[in-house]
Design goal:
- This protein has helices at 6-28, 39-55, 77-83, 86-96; strands spanning 69-70, 106-107, 154-155, 168-169, 172-173, 189-190.
- The protein is mainly α.
- A two-stranded antiparallel sheet has the order 1-2. The protein has a two-stranded antiparallel sheet with strand order 3-6. Strands 4-5 form a two-stranded antiparallel ribbon.
- The chain is globular and about 45 Å long.
- The model is unreliable at 1-9 (pLDDT under 50).
Length: 191
């Protein structure tokens, strides 16, 4: 029996990995890729962000949280290049099995000196997106490690099975889930 050529084995392994990640995503509503970007990629992104901050195109404050900044792809060419990165786009297409488009790209940074600043209440991303279809993905790229005491991004696996929850009080959108009884924070995991 002959072994298949090495390239065929790699392609088969890659296809199996994609299938496993798709299955995990469908079951849990979240999936992580810890080896997608390498240290050189991260260094380029950090440099681009620092340049954008120096030019005043992005805001960063060591002491307090700045509001999320949208449309960051226009702040530096490396950020625009990142949203078109084939590694990210191919994974996204594979996960939702549909063509993709960028809805928005934002910059969320916590201050170094005040680690508890910038907390966000439990919410679903869907109410923030101007769409009627449910085949949406929020892609998050962590540029450095987070400590538990700094309030890292957390998710609740399988919470997508709850369906769309209310984010309104007295008919007003309040930016967080108002059906708190449905949120089991004990099941949350940091990304």
């Amino acid at each position: 029996i002959r072994r298949p050529p090495r390239s065929t084995r790699k392609e088969s392994s890659a296809a199996s990995d994609v299938y496993k990640r798709q299955s995990y995503y469908r079951q849990f509503g979240v999936v992580g890729f810890h080896d997608l970007l390498n240290s050189e990629d991260i260094k380029k992104i950090h440099n681009g962000i620092n340049e954008a901050i120096e030019k005043g195109d992005l805001k960063y404050n060591d002491d307090e949280f700045e509001a999320y900044q949208n449309d960051i792809i226009f702040c530096h060419p490396i950020l625009e290049k990142l949203v078109n990165d084939k590694r990210i786009c191919n994974i996204t297409r594979n996960l939702i099995s549909n063509p993709i488009e960028l809805q928005h790209a934002k910059f969320a940074v916590k201050p170094k000196k005040n680690k508890t600043s910038g907390g966000i209440k439990w919410h679903q991303d869907f109410p923030f997106f101007p769409h009627t279809n449910f085949d949406l993905i929020a892609c998050v790229i962590h540029l450095d490690d987070e400590e538990i005491d700094s309030g890292p991004l957390k998710v609740i696996p399988q919470s997508h099975e709850l369906g769309l929850l209310s984010h309104c009080t007295d008919d007003k959108f309040v930016y967080h889930c108002t059906q708190e009884e449905k949120i089991d924070e004990d099941k949350s995991i940091p990304l």
